[in-house]
Design brief:
The protein starts with a strand and ends in a 5-residue tail after the last strand. It has a single domain, classed as Sulfate adenylyltransferase (Roll), CATH 3.10.400. Helices cover 21% and strands 31% of the residues. The chain is α+β, with helices and mostly antiparallel strands. The protein has a five-stranded mixed beta sheet with strand order 1-3-4-5-2.
């Protein structure tokens, strides 16, 4: 059974398959070709609430970089085609209460045709 990876902030982008890159503050040992199950939310579930599976993905590449190194192309791959790099950085800085130079794990993935 593949490990779950949450897309709580980007569920609509995941479902529309417009997101092919995600940035994480963790997942440091992740390797290409790993299959993961995208879920709506993995932590903070209320009593009786179940994990909602969104679909299977396969990791294409993984690399560490400062958050502020994100490119306009990657903002689009993150599922935000109408945002600037600064808007995306501000979004994560505010949500996670981090600094723009924080090292993140850039994970590129592709969608699999199989159901979760």
């Amino acid at each position: 059974m593949p490990r779950n990876i949450s897309f709580a902030l980007t569920t609509p982008q995941f479902l529309a398959k417009t997101k092919t890159v995600t940035r994480r503050f963790g997942w440091w040992s992740l390797k290409p070709e790993t299959v993961l199950c995208g879920v709506e939310k993995a932590m903070g579930l209320k009593k009786g609430e179940a994990v909602k599976k969104l679909g299977l993905i396969e990791v294409v590449s993984v690399r560490s970089e400062p958050l502020q190194a994100i490119t306009a192309e990657d903002v689009i791959k993150e599922g935000f085609p109408h945002w600037t790099t600064n808007e995306f950085i501000d979004f994560l800085v505010k949500h996670y209460r981090i600094k723009p130079n924080k090292i993140v794990n850039r994970i590129e993935f592709k969608y699999m045709d199989l159901e979760p």
